[in-house]
Design brief:
The chain is mainly alpha-helical and 148 residues long. Helix content is 60%, strand content 7%. It has five helices and four strands; from the N terminus they run H-E-E-H-H-E-E-H-H. The protein has a two-stranded antiparallel sheet with strand order 1-2. Strands 3-4 form a two-stranded antiparallel sheet. A hairpin with a 5-residue loop joins strand 1 and strand 2. The longest helix is centred in the middle third of the chain and has 30 residues. The N and C termini lie far apart (96 Å). 18% of the residues are buried.
Length: 148
Amino acid sequence: MRKLIVAALFVAALIPAVALAADVTTTDASVVDRPNGGSETARALRAKQHREHVKKLRAERRARARQQAAASTASPALQAIAACESGGDPHAIGGGGAYRGKYQFDQGTWASVGGSGDPAAAPEAEQDSRAAMLYARTGASAWPVCGQ
């Protein structure tokens, strides 16, 4: 009788452990029903959603770049300089924070063309016009690497 009770307790203790292990297994490979009638594992669904999100972000970035290029009032020479200096990003910060904005102005150069405050915080049109002033004054030499 004692052996029967011990065996029953052993089985009773084993059943929750087996159920718990089965629950963990189904969580990792759980199946998610899709509206189109198919099914995917949760991990595959998350990966697919991530890829779609990244694809959307890249498309938005390309559209923003096209829009900036179309809206830019800068000459082709200045557009090339901006593309080299900052990738055309008016909010770019480089050189450990020393160079700022679309044309990577330092504070002294920015002030010399009438700019005030942070060049990277200035509207893109203002950065374009101040870069045009600098270009008219010194040519591409103000950008020793990208002006070549």
